[in-house]
């Protein structure tokens, strides 16, 4: 019988992990129910425990590339078809905030919403839908990708000394951290919604 820990360890150290991570990050924009954060956390923690700094750099690069490719897909979908992103068109919440700030502060709009659950889908597709020019979208999506990848890779680096390279512990820590980050972002979003002034009709 195959040892699960050995199998996970092999997967976390596999040369295929870097391109697969890029694909996972690319896909979790249009499909946020397939989060890539646990993979990035776990792989970074395992690489740190192995003392493989170049693998951490490669994982960071894969996260940036996947983020940019996924954003390009969402931006194109927003420009070409409202039906593809109809679920992100809301009159309140993240979508409304993004639409109010996209043209005036595109970098702030895309970076600020990137860590929110569903924020990437709402903000990047909205950028395409409102026809945000490429000259404004490109620096905004690059900044968003760099901030998100740095934040997520940094968390994985912090987890490394805790898991001591144990594959099962790395994966478990990855899922726990992903849940904590999502919960914190959702709580912040709810708090901001509660503090929003109510406009009398």
TrEMBL record:
Record keywords, A-Z: Cell membrane, Membrane, Transmembrane, Transmembrane helix
Bilayer-spanning residue ranges: 7-34, 54-76, 137-162, 168-188
UniProt topology in membrane: Multi-pass membrane protein
Main location (coarse class): membrane
Intracellular or extracellular location(s): Cell membrane
Record-linked InterPro entries: DedA_domain, VTT_dom
Single GO cellular component term: plasma membrane
Start and end residues of each VTT domain: 35-156
Coiled-coil ranges from the UniProt annotation: none
Family: Belongs to the DedA family.
Protein name: Membrane protein DedA with SNARE-associated domain
């Amino acid at each position: 019988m195959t040892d699960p820990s050995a199998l996970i360890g092999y997967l976390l150290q596999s040369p295929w992990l870097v391109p697969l991570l890029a694909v996972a990050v690319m896909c979790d924009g249009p499909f946020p129910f397939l989060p890539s954060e646990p993979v990035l956390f776990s792989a970074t923690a395992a690489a740190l425990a192995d003392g493989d700094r170049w693998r951490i750099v490669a994982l960071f690069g894969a996260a940036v590339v996947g983020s940019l490719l996924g954003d390009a897909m969402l931006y194109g979908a927003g420009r070409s078809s409202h039906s593809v992103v109809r679920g992100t068109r809301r009159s309140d919440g993240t979508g409304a905030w993004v639409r109010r700030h996209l043209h005036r502060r595109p970098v702030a709009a895309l970076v600020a919403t990137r860590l929110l659950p569903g924020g990437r889908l709402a903000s990047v597709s909205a950028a395409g839908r409102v026809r945000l020019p490429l000259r404004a979208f490109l620096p905004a999506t690059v900044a968003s990708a760099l901030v998100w990848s740095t934040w997520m890779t940094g968390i994985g680096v912090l987890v490394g000394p805790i898991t001591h390279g144990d594959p099962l512990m790395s994966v478990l820590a990855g899922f726990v951290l992903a849940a904590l980050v999502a919960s914190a972002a959702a709580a912040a979003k709810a708090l901001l919604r509660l503090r929003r002034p109510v406009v009398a009709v």
